[in-house]
């Protein structure tokens, strides 16, 4: 009897299983998908909206993702929109949303077409230094001292014929007829009240400047006194529309010393026609890989002869260009943007004498091999004066005391964005959802793609949280104050020994070492 019951049970179970009606997908664990999925650019992010399915039984949340993959966010069941951060500018994304029911998910419902977030500025393409202008030889302009040159930069020295929004130039003044200043600005625009290089009679002075390119592909160099002008290009920045989503983005660093040949750090002091190769990747905060170029502050610390130093990518032919010009026993500095060469190194060529070198790294540019590293774009603006303590512009009308700092408000001035809207916070906070009350949106003009920005001189927008203090060395405050206004400033005797200018050009005694 017991065996008979067991046999009957098995038969009945098989019969029930064979005649049970089809189970709806939702009851089986797979929920119905959302409908009406749309996606739009939201500043530097991607906003995705959807309509939940009519039958929400069992739905525990939604998963928002993109094609190409990389952005994904899980949300609770009451969400109907999300904002995805970490978007690479100038890259088309197709958004898709799937409903979740525990561990199960519906097939994703896609938005209509790809959405592209516009880059807020340009990306850098660094080039080995190339000479574009030398009025001593007639390169790029008629030979002879001049007060103004309209220099064609588009299509020369590695700069493309179109698509360059700004260029990085090392501008050198040599043999000026009197004290004065040089202003670099976009061709076809009015000359601004600003200066890039200040000089005294007979000096050789250099400074690195990032200047927008005019609509005709030119940059104007104006000098308040007749002088010879030399300009070497170090790189160019794309327009926002052609900016790379990952390459040529800037990462600022706290200054780190890589070389001081006086103490043997990083190498020995180069002699005449000597060369020092410096390892820059994997040092001073620069990653070991993924780097296209570095920003270096290079100082000559008391050479025993007049000469010049050229920084260029290791393993490449030495260019006809110069980074610093100096006389014997002079101490001076200049900034340089230089591509990294073989094995992540940069070479420094010394023309004459024994020349102690000090090299500090202040930032690097990505090469695009790892898009996740992010970085800052350049949004260039025409040169505009925002501080002049002689006239009380942007600061009290008084000299800056030795050892003191001068805080300068830059946000909302001279074409820079206002500081009223916060910059994107960390990724976990930026990927969000909510109803109409959640109105935190990204500003439409920001200097970053998906990481907080760092500053690269006055052309980059300020860093975290708006206005940043601009710290200027007090030792640079006087010598050529009059030159910026077109006035000659009384000069003291003994010009041969000058202090370095971290934010300025290499000032030089009238004698030798020119290139």
Walk me through the structure:
It is built from 4 helices and 25 strands. The longest helix has 18 residues, at 2-19. The protein has helices spanning 2-19, 25-28, 427-430, 481-484; strands spanning 35-42, 45-51, 61-67, 72-76, 81-84, 92-101, 104-105, 109-110, 115-116, 124-134, 146-152, 164-174, 180-186, 197-199, 205-212, 218-238, 247-260, 274-279, 291-301, 307-313, 324-326, 331-339, 345-350, 357-367, 432-433. Among the domains are: 25-116, Sandwich (Immunoglobulin-like), CATH 2.60.40; 124-381, no CATH class. The chain is mainly β and 515 residues long. It is 6% helix and 36% strand. The radius of gyration is 30 Å and the shape is elongated. Strand 1 and strand 2 (45-51) form a beta hairpin. Strands 10, 11, 12, 13, 14, 15 and 16 form a 7-stranded antiparallel beta sheet that branches. Strands 3, 4, 6, 7, 8 and 9 form a 6-stranded antiparallel beta sheet that branches. The model is unreliable at 1-28 and 421-515 (pLDDT under 50).
List the helices and strands and how they pair.
Elements: H1 2-19, H2 25-28, E1 35-42, E2 45-51, E3 61-67, E4 72-76, E5 81-84, E6 92-101, E7 104-105, E8 109-110, E9 115-116, E10 124-134, E11 146-152, E12 164-174, E13 180-186, E14 197-199, E15 205-212, E16 218-238, E17 247-260, E18 274-279, E19 291-301, E20 307-313, E21 324-326, E22 331-339, E23 345-350, E24 357-367, H3 427-430, E25 432-433, H4 481-484
């Amino acid at each position: 009897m017991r065996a008979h019951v067991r046999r009957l049970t098995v038969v009945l179970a098989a019969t029930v299983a064979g005649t049970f009606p089809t189970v709806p997908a939702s009851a089986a664990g797979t929920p119905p998908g959302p409908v009406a999925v749309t996606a739009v650019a939201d500043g530097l992010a991607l906003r995705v909206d959807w309509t939940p399915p009519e039958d929400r039984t069992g739905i525990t949340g939604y998963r928002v993702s993109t094609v190409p993959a990389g952005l994904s966010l899980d949300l609770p069941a009451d969400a109907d929109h999300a904002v995805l951060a970490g978007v690479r500018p100038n890259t088309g994304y197709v958004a898709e949303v799937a409903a979740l029911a525990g561990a199960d998910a519906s097939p994703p419902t896609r938005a209509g077409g790809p959405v592209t977030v516009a880059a807020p500025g340009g990306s850098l393409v660094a080039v080995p230094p190339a000479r574009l202008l030398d009025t001593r030889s007639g390169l790029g302009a008629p030979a002879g001292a001049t007060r103004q040159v309209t220099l064609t930069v588009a299509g020369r020295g590695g700069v493309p014929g179109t698509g360059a929004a700004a260029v990085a130039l090392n501008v050198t003044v040599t043999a000026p007829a009197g004290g004065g200043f040089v202003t670099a600005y976009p061709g076809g625009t009015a000359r601004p009240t600003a200066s890039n290089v200040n000089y005294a009679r007979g000096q050789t002075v250099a400074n690195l400047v990032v200047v927008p390119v005019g609509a005709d592909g030119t940059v104007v160099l104006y000098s308040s006194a007749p002088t010879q002008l030399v300009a070497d290009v170090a790189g160019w920045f794309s327009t926002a529309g052609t900016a790379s989503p990952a390459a040529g983005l800037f990462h600022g660093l706290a200054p780190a010393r890589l070389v001081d040949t006086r103490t043997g750090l990083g190498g020995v002091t180069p002699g005449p026609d000597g060369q020092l190769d410096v390892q820059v990747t994997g040092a001073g905060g620069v990653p070991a890989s993924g780097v296209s170029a570095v920003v270096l502050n290079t100082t000559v610390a008391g050479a025993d002869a007049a000469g010049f130093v050229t920084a260029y990518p290791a393993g490449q032919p030495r260019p006809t260009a110069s980074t610093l010009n100096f006389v014997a026993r002079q101490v001076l500095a200049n900034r340089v943007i230089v591509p990294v060469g073989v094995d992540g190194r940069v070479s420094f060529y010394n023309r004459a004498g024994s020349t102690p070198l000090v090299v500090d790294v202040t930032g690097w540019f990505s090469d695009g091999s790892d898009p996740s590293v992010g970085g800052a774009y350049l949004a260039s603006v025409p040169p505009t004066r925002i501080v002049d303590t002689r006239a009380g512009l942007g600061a009290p009308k008084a000299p800056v005391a030795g050892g003191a700092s001068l805080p300068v408000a830059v946000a909302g001035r001279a074409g820079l964005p206002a500081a009223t809207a916060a910059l994107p916070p960390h990724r976990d906070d930026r990927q969000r959802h909510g109803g109409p009350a959640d109105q935190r949106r990204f500003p439409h003009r920001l200097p970053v793609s998906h990481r907080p920005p760092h500053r690269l001189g006055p052309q980059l927008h300020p860093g975290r949280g708006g206005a940043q203090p601009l710290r200027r060395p007090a030792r640079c405050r006087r010598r050529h104050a009059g030159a910026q206004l077109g006035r000659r400033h009384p000069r003291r005797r003994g010009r041969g020994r000058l202090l370095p200018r971290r934010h300025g050009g290499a000032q030089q005694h009238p004698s030798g070492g020119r290139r």
